[in-house]
Specification:
Layout: H1 5-15, E1 47-53, H2 62-67, E2 80-89, E3 92-95, H3 102-125, E4 130-135, H4 139-149, H5 153-166, E5 171-174, H6 185-202, E6 212-217, H7 224-228, E7 236-239, H8 250-260, E8 267-272, H9 286-298, E9 303-307, H10 323-333
Parallel strand pairs: 1-2, 1-9, 2-4, 4-5, 5-6, 6-7, 7-8, 8-9
Antiparallel strand pairs: 2-3
């Protein structure tokens, strides 16, 4: 999942690199004001999804800020939640950070607790929501890990299925983003094939649902041929069609995948809800969300997702306003 530079700096500092962009305030917004909690997601025949980003950095206050007002989280506006990130390490799925120092072990325990707390809050407020865990990205750190994992796909898939069962989850999203992903298409397909087959053999979860598998696609990086090659290996793909501009245009990306052989009905379009997002015209607007919804309906796509729920239009770094979540949910469920 691509991050805004303001968020990416925190991740980079954690990984030992650096970068910075200050998020800009949203004019005329008041943190948490005017949030409509009227259920809409339950009336939609399409997926209305949102990502929640849990940073392993102890200095990040997003989680505590959002969870300090749990009644404002618009759980009823979505019907699928993606929790990021877990990671791939030594051939299995595990929590971040992966180090062995006492500080890393403590933060990993904290991450595990936060994941379970988010699941608990979502289940209590919208029991029918599908909840996924997401494995993360990072070419320097994660490409070698995914490639190692592909040498023994079943070991990895067994760890994923065990993770889903242990944490009361419905699915797994592989967010393997890499500029070399087309070169790694055989490994990507092998991992997704193994996941798909193992999930099918596992039968339904305790909630009576099949375990689901998605893969997140970065427009313009993964070729249409690579995407088409996984059509039978995933339940859906999430297209990171962020912003109102042309850089990551939904129609261009979706049409190219469809022409290569990937069905529209297994595509989920994406919107960007971070107020500091600097690319492709900035964060999505009410008009661009509506346009994406119209395109999704016209082409019978699977649904729409946002990056990210916990940072949805935060003025001056304050509490999220959840306005993009509202736009997305209303237009998809209407």
């Amino acid at each position: 999942m691509r991050l805004t530079l303001s968020v990416l700096v925190i991740v980079m500092l954690f990984l030992g690199t650096a970068g910075c962009l200050q998020a800009q305030p949203v004019a005329g917004t008041v943190p948490g004001a005017g949030i409509d909690q009227t259920p809409t997601a339950g009336r939609s025949d399409r997926i209305i999804a949102a990502y929640w980003f849990l940073l392993p950095n102890p200095d990040d206050d997003t989680y505590s800020l959002v969870m300090s007002a749990p009644d404002r989280i618009p759980w009823t506006k979505i019907n699928r939640l993606y929790i990021g990130f877990a990671t791939v390490k030594d051939g299995i799925l595990t929590e971040l950070p992966t180090g062995s120092s006492p500080a890393d072990v403590s933060r990993r325990d904290e991450m595990r607790m936060r994941i379970r707390e988010v699941v608990k809050e979502c289940r209590e407020n919208n029991p029918d929501t599908e909840i996924f865990i997401v494995s993360n990205f990072g070419e320097r750190e994660l490409d070698p890990e995914y490639l190692q994992t592909a040498q023994d796909p079943q070991k990895f898939v067994d760890s994923v299925l065990a993770y889903l069962k242990e944490n009361d989850l419905d699915g797994y999203d592989m967010d393997w983003e890499s500029h070399s992903i087309d070169d790694y298409a055989p490994q990507l397909t092998s991992l997704l094939d193994a996941c798909h087959a193992t999930f099918a053999a596992a039968g339904n979860s305790p909630r009576g649902r099949p375990y689901l598998l998605t893969h997140t696609v970065w427009p313009g990086v993964e070729s249409p041929q690579t995407v088409a090659g996984i059509r039978d290996s995933v339940d859906q793909i999430n297209i990171m069609s962020y912003g109102p501009g042309d850089t990551y245009d939904l129609a261009t990306s979706a049409d190219s995948h469809a022409k290569a052989g990937f069905p529209y009905g297994k595509m989920i379009g994406g919107v960007e809800s971070e107020s500091g997002y600097p690319e492709s015209g900035g964060p999505d607007t009410k008009e661009s969300v509506a346009a994406k919804c119209a395109y999704i309906r016209a082409n019978n796509m699977a649904g729409l997702f946002e990056w990210r729920l916990d940072n949805d239009m935060r003025p001056d770094g304050g509490a999220p306003t959840y306005q993009v979540t509202g736009w997305m949910s209303n237009c998809m469920a209407g």
